[in-house]
Amino acid sequence: MLIERATAPLLDLIPELEPHLEARTPCTDYTVRQLINHLLFWAPSLTGGATKEAIAPPAAAESDLDLTTGDCLAALTASITTTVKAWSDPAAWEGTTYMGGPMELPAELVGAMVAGEFVVHGWDLARAAGRDLPVDPDIAEYLEAELAKTAEQARQMGIFGPEVAVAKSAPAMHRVLGLTGRDPGWTVS
To answer: Mycothiol-dependent maleylpyruvate isomerase metal-binding domain: from which residue to which, for each copy (predicted)?
Structure first.
């Protein structure tokens, strides 16, 4: 299943993040801990997209709630596993659904956004830990095509940063990163 293949590298990475919780990430607004909080904050909405429920996040803003107390790595693994299970149902990809609010969107679009969230933020976390994220090239090509459909709108909404120029001959994952406003050569300093 697409969602399982997209999230497997992130799930493999999570146990290695403990010593890097305060490290900066390529997602400039977040440290590793803050990015984990972001993923935990949006997890119910991502899962709700698969079950066709408009589940709002648990607070008005991510900064209003610290979900990284306790064993945040176990909580992250559990939340991603729950989301993957929900999106593994073929019915999740059919018709329309929600992404945390009352506006209906095509389920395939939301599913691609969920996969992109885990792959791109997985890369952010891997780079913060000084590692690469081994993303299946087929998944990266799929995400490039899907994310390109909404990239300009995502930039206008502040979800993606300004596009980073990446050669068309570069690996698909590098093109995904450039599309989302990330420099594929970013390293932790």
So the answer is: 6-126
